[in-house]
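Quick one, tokens below. Sequence please?
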């Protein structure tokens, strides 16, 4: 595979540009096909839109942008609450006048002409905040009823593209020694073999007294490495815990550190744990997207509260007053004059804000941002000694290069044996047929490189395990639950910490009955025999079938209603034994199965239902995995992906229940066969009685 070899940097960048273009086009096609084919109401039900809104307020936010607050139209909502919806902060949306309810064909570009793009900054019960794209004040005067609908996130791509274009244009003479190592043009500087007796990192005074040996070893290694270090953190092994100590040790050595992750939550997680340590930190990013506990460190709040921020305040107030005066003005001439003033004020505001930001960023030992957030203007001239990337195996490599382009050293923490970032163009027909910019330019492409190949994967393949240290003590799973993933994926190296290795449901502190479901760490309910068949989402008379012929709102998916009945029975039995629903999660690889399971949420409020992919990074006391696949051909689809199975089986702390058809699943892959055999030998094995299921389900 090409990723093992030295890579021509320019071809690498061209390939990334081409792949990113394909991915973006795929996302745009998918969104526009949904918007064109479904009514606003249907899109709302599918979590893609919110309808029947009015502008309830308008103000100036960070960067001088106009922020609208959109609330339900009182003519349609009596409670004043937004309907159920799937819009989240950070989503890119279009705010537009609401089209008529019928599902007549509408093109996104026509909608865009009538509306404005923006980023969702706040989601509350009664309103949603949207920061509009720059300089669009005039379009912001929505008088009629509006709706918002999710669009493809082109902003993120723009940052990645700019970064890859820079890399593509660099001449070899411009490559830093860091860049040379990351592409295999040079080897990483050697690290002493015996770090424990090294003069620099051998005698560290630890801030955290409970670090285990593998964590200490990884920290020493990351400190001693000159260009690159990978910290491999299998499930539950305290990756973030280790990174916090590493960051503190770097600060102690006078280094300036930029900490990034692919998502806001991954970054906030670190801010929350660093902030009690009283080191000066700044979190970049829109405040409305940050956790409340992190706000005090956000640049936006610091620009208001710090001394340096005072100069920004007056302009902000003046802009707000101008915005408010627009509503009162009837004459077009006066309005135009106000817009012109606003434009000047915005310029002034940005200028003052920039100075204040440079001052704050310059004064912090640690700056934290999402990977693409690190590409903002605030860091344009900032220099860092090290970039630390958490959840690096879930980030696109192009995204990692946003902070890396001017870095000297990188520490990546992640687990390449769990799921990589989700790529839409990988399996889609649309993706493979698209003609991309790269093809047109005739640039040299690297075979074998996909967007799924993360920086973590590529560096490991390029330089081998000597650039990596693995954390080996896990603090999540019962020893029996850990055994299979440890043996098959982590070279049998995982050790269950004493505090967790024998924990069972019956020992939950709030009192749980002693029974067969609460004393077994692993239960396998084997549906073999063909009585529990899978269904395609559009077979039969389920709700989804009605959408046949249209681009589906749910994607191509599978479900298994009989298996869902078994899940229901097992959850009921756990809850009857005293396990709280909030300590139980049901995970399944298939979205259609999630929809079938949805009524469980009404019956057991607090229970969590999730896709395996969506549950990565999470844990629960009891986890039920519904495998869904049951067919005579032994087809297992994307259940065959080891990394997905790994995520599924490593979520529980005390109890793992697997429900599936061993006959079908065994035929899927060598890994699945081994897993089924492991379950047959080590789990509490049960064969469901069909009559109980029909009666109970
Ligand atoms: N040395 C340690 N001693 C005791 N508990 C630890 C130690 N290191 C980590 N833990 C505990 O293990 C749990 C997982 O740690 P942490 O949250 O840092 O992991 P993570 O990197 O966020 O996630 P992952 O579990 O995916 O690695 C936490 O409850 C943490 O307190």
């Amino acid at each position: 595979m090409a990723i093992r070899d030295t890579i021509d940097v320019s071809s690498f960048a061209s390939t990334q540009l081409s792949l990113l273009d394909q991915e973006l086009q795929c996302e745009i096609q998918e969104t526009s096909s949904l918007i064109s084919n479904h009514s606003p109401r249907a899109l709302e039900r599918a979590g893609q839109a919110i309808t029947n809104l009015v502008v309830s307020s308008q103000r100036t936010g960070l960067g001088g942008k106009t922020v609208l607050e959109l609330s339900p139209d009182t003519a349609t909502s009596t409670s004043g609450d937004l309907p159920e919806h799937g819009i989240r902060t950070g989503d890119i949306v279009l705010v537009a006048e609401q089209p008529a309810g019928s599902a007549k064909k509408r093109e996104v570009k026509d909608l865009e002409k009538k509306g404005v793009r923006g980023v969702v900054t706040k989601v509350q019960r009664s309103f949603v905040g949207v920061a509009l794209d720059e300089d669009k004040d005039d379009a912001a005067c929505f008088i009629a009823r509006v709706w918002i609908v999710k669009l493809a996130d082109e902003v993120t791509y723009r940052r990645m593209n700019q970064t890859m274009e820079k890399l593509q244009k660099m001449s070899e003479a411009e490559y830093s020694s860091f860049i040379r190592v990351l592409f295999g043009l040079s080897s990483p500087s050697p690290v002493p073999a015996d770090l424990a007796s090294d003069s620099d990192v051998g005698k560290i005074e630890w801030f955290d007294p409970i670090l285990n040996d593998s964590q200490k070893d990884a920290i020493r290694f990351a400190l001693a490495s000159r260009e690159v270090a990978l910290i491999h953190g299998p499930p539950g092994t305290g990756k973030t815990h280790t990174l916090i100590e590493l960051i503190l040790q770097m600060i102690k050595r006078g280094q300036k550190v930029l900490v990034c992750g692919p998502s806001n939550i991954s970054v906030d997680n670190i801010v929350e744990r660093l902030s009690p340590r009283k080191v000066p930190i700044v979190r970049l990013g829109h405040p409305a997207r940050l956790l409340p506990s992190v706000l005090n460190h956000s640049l936006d709040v610091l620009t208001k509260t710090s001394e340096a921020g005072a100069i920004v305040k007056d302009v902000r107030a003046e802009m707000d007053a101008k915005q408010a005066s627009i509503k009162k003005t009837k004459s077009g001439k006066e309005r135009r004059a106000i817009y012109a003033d606003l434009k000047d004020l915005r310029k002034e505001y940005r200028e003052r804000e920039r100075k204040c930001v440079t001052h704050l960023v310059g004064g912090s030992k640690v700056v934290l941002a999402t990977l693409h957030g690190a590409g903002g203007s605030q860091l344009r001239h900032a220099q860092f000694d090290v970039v630390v990337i958490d959840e690096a195996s879930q980030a696109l490599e192009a995204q990692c290069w946003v902070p890396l382009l001017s870095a000297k050293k990188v520490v990546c923490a992640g687990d390449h044996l769990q799921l990589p970032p989700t790529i839409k163009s990988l399996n889609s027909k649309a993706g493979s047929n698209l003609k991309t910019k790269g093809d047109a330019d005739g640039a040299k492409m690297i075979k074998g490189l996909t967007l799924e190949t993360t920086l973590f994967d590529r560096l490991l393949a390029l330089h081998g395990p000597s650039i990596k240290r693995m954390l080996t003590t896990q603090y999540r799973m019962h020893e029996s639950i850990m055994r299979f993933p440890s043996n098959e994926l982590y070279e049998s190296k995982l050790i269950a910490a004493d505090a967790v290795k024998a924990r069972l449901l019956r020992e939950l502190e709030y009192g749980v009955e002693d029974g067969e479901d609460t004393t077994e760490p692993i239960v396998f309910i084997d549906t073999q025999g063909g009585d529990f068949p899978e269904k395609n989402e559009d077979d039969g008379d389920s709700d989804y079938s009605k959408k046949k012929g249209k681009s589906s709102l749910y994607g191509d998916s599978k479900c298994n209603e009989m298996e869902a009945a078994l899940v229901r029975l097992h959850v009921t039995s756990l809850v009857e034994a005293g396990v709280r629903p909030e300590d139980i999660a049901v995970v399944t690889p298939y979205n259609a199965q999630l929809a079938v399971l949805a009524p469980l949420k009404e019956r057991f409020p607090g229970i969590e239902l999730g896709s395996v992919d969506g549950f990565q990074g999470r844990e629960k006391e009891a986890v039920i995995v519904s495998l869904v696949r049951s067919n005579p051909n032994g087809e297992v689809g994307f259940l065959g992906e080891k990394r997905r199975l790994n995520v599924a089986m490593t979520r529980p702390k005390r109890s793992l229940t697997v429900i599936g058809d061993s006959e079908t699943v065994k035929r899927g892959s060598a890994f699945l066969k081994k897993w089924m055999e492991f379950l047959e030998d080590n789990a509490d094995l049960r064969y469901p009685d069909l009559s109980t299921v029909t009666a109970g389900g």
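The chain has four domains: 38-156, 175-279+371-427+441-471, 287-364, 484-542+549-696. The first strand starts at residue 49 and ends at 60.
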